[in-house]
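[recover] target loaded
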């Protein structure tokens, strides 16, 4: 049976059609109170009817909490350069173009402005979603830079949306069912959804609602605009007025509809709104978005994801975590944890993205699904948000390992580098990121879902570099990005330098303040080449285990210096469904072969191995950071975002058991899991001496004989060839 048409496909056919799901910067329970910009008002605001809103809902204490965006400043490097490109866009793109669809719907003068385009058109069924993302973009940019012009732009956007909301309430045609309604199209789409109207007659009305509400909450928490909270609260009241009286069965049928029932992170944004307003109807409205069949399956650890629209569902689980925070219902938390495992353990490509043509495929289907439309960028945006939220609940390093992978190899790679189209006319970001052979990244995406999340991605790189324990006794260093943390409650300023994602020494210096503190340094799972730490030049004896945190507990003083060294090693990662289909990494950095060939390139490495069993003996450095050559091709970091065709996966070709220059003539047969004789052998490296290698070869060859994969004659030929491996690599 054919799949429904993808939204990306329709975009290519005609402008003005629909979208996918994103999700913006989440408010943790702590951020609901502390995430506001320094000049933000108190939490209390004014509700649409003029009554004062409640202070805040009681926020559950999570063991780990983030720092507000404005307390972490990016230092020089690749991340800051990409951030600056998006800041240019935030500053220059006309606010009136963003507002055009809202003003037209409210019967107000559009001031001659044209809508942005893409899916954000005068008659598009998703219009308004891009404006929500743009609010978040400007709010994040202001929180980061504190530029007065960005604050002025943000306030102008909110004020104009307030005028639109008032005009709709006063003389909308048709007039909305509740004065809190705010959108760029009439309420008709929401009414039609309640009678199960399908896409593309309608698109995803609550998805669009989510983007606008999230943008308004970010304008409040990050930009200090009190009116934005009033508008968001009114929208929450309107959502409750529509959905609160509907039967559960009707809601569940609505949310099961492909795309039309896509609601983004409505449950998350309403829970965040509840944390700010304390209004019970906002929490009740959040629970109206329980997608019960999928929620229950994931809570029970039953994987039913195959064939579902990936980004329609990912943000729902961040919302479930937020509902767990406020209700204590364990099924919400269990569903989020299990869903994350289902995606990351068996449906994630080497760059950290998921999905083929926007859809989840079967468990383990990696090699079988490689093409030019893998890894929708919105989906990675949302998986990183979910990873971050899960870490706040349970500081397991596995969440930050995934976060680093996706941030470095997908998100950083998703914005075209300087030299492309001017960043002031469009976001210049990716939608799909193909993982098939010889594909190329396509940039642009004005007005699309990934254009919207793309604006946000590159203005919040620093949001997960550092976390703090709830009691303030520990500082987590999760990512080794050049940055400066200001922690005013403790009087601390900590500066981190380094050239990540290039390989270099990372240095943290306590520039101001001090006192007792546990400094928890993440030891990445890829750091198998060593992880050493010195404090003021003195080596630390603490054990560093890849995939953990190393804790330094001391009474820190101003000027204290921590140097972290984690040398990068070349390594391969195998596709789950075909171990011969592999990706190459240099530490955390995905390497891609530059080639326009449309079939898999075949690489063979074992013949060049020395006793140390290191890929560095088979792949040559090119002279630039994380650039190499092999088989006549250049291997380059994928985060360098250009228009070159690339291969993120290659096919490993090791047909015969060969040791150095000695060819045994024996086929390199595989066992049931797809791993070959040489795969299993070299996984035991390094070997101290040639005799150690020969003993390992003999033992494994005997096993291959006992399991029927070698004859006795073949076994002897393999053992005889083993001394051909050199102690060192020959020029």
């Amino acid at each position: 049976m054919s799949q429904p048409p993808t939204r990306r496909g329709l975009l290519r056919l005609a402008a003005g059609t629909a979208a996918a799901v994103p999700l913006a910067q989440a408010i943790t329970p702590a951020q609901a109170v502390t995430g506001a910009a320094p000049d933000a008002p108190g939490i209390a605001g004014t509700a649409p009817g003029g009554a004062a809103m409640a202070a805040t809902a009681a926020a559950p204490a999570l063991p780990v909490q983030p720092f507000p965006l404005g307390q972490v400043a990016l230092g020089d490097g690749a991340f800051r350069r990409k951030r600056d490109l998006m800041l240019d866009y935030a500053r220059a793109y006309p606010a009136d173009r963003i507002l055009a669809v809202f003003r037209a719907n409210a019967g107000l003068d559009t001031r001659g402005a044209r809508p942005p385009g893409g899916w954000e058109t005068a008659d598009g069924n998703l219009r308004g979603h891009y404006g929500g993302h743009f609010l978040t973009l400007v709010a994040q940019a202001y929180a980061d830079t504190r530029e007065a012009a960005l604050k002025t732009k943000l306030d102008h956007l909110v004020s104009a949306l307030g005028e639109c909301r008032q005009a709709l309430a006063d003389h909308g045609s048709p007039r909305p069912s509740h004065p809190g309604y705010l959108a760029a199209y009439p309420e008709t789409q929401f009414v039609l959804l309640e009678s199960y109207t399908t896409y593309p007659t309608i698109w995803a009305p609550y998805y669009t609602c989510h983007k606008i509400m999230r943008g308004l909450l970010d304008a409040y928490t990050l930009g200090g605009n009190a009116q934005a909270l009033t508008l968001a609260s009114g929208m929450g009241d309107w959502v409750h007025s529509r959905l609160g009286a509907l039967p559960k069965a009707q809601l569940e049928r609505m949310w099961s509809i492909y795309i039309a029932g896509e609601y983004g992170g409505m449950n998350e944004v309403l829970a965040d709104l509840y944390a700010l307003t304390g209004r019970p109807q906002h929490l009740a409205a959040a629970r109206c978005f329980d997608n019960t069949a999928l929620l229950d399956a994931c809570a029970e650890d039953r994987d039913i994801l195959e064939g579902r629209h990936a980004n329609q569902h990912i943000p729902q689980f961040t919302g479930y975590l937020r509902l767990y925070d406020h209700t204590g219902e364990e099924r919400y938390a269990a569903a989020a944890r299990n869903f994350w495992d289902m995606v990351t353990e068996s449906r994630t490509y080497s760059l950290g993205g998921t999905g083929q043509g926007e859809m989840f495929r079967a468990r383990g289907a990696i090699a079988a699904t490689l093409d030019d439309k893998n890894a929708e960028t919105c989906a990675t945006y949302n998986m990183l948000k979910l990873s971050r939220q899960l870490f706040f609940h349970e500081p397991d390093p596995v969440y930050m390992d995934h976060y680093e992978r996706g941030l470095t190899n997908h998100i950083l790679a998703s914005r075209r580098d300087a030299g492309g189209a001017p960043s002031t006319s469009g976001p210049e970001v990716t939608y799909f990121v193909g993982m098939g052979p010889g594909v190329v990244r396509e940039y642009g995406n004005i007005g699309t879902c990934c254009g919207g999340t793309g604006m946000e991605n590159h203005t919040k790189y620093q949001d997960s570099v550092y976390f703090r324990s709830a009691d303030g006794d520990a500082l987590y260093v999760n990512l080794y990005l050049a940055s400066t943390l200001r922690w005013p409650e403790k009087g601390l300023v900590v500066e981190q330098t380094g050239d990540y994602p290039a390989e270099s020494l990372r240095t943290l210096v306590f520039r101001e303040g001090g006192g007792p503190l546990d400094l928890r340094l993440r030891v990445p799972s890829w750091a198998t080449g060593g992880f050493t730490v010195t404090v003021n030049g003195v080596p630390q004896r603490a054990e560093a285990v890849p995939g953990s945190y190393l804790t330094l507990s001391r009474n820190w003083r101003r000027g204290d210096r921590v140097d972290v060294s984690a040398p990068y090693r070349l390594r391969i990662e195998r596709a789950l469904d075909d171990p011969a289909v592999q990706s190459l990494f240099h530490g955390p950095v995905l390497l891609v072969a530059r080639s326009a060939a449309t079939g898999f390139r075949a690489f063979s490495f074992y013949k060049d191995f020395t006793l140390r069993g290191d890929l560095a003996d088979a792949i040559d450095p090119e002279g630039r950071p994380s650039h190499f050559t092999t088989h006549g091709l250049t291997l380059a970091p994928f985060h360098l975002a250009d228009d070159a065709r690339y291969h993120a996966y290659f096919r490993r070709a090791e047909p015969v058991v060969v040791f150095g220059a000695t060819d045994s003539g024996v086929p390199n047969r595989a066992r049931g899991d797809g791993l070959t004789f040489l795969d299993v052998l070299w996984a035991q490296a390094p070997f101290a001496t040639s005799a150690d290698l020969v003993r390992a070869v003999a033992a494994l060859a005997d096993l291959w004989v006992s399991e029927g994969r070698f004859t006795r004659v073949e076994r002897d030929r393999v053992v005889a060839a083993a001394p051909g491996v050199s102690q060192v690599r020959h020029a």
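[recover] notes: Confidence is low (pLDDT under 50) at residues 1-55.
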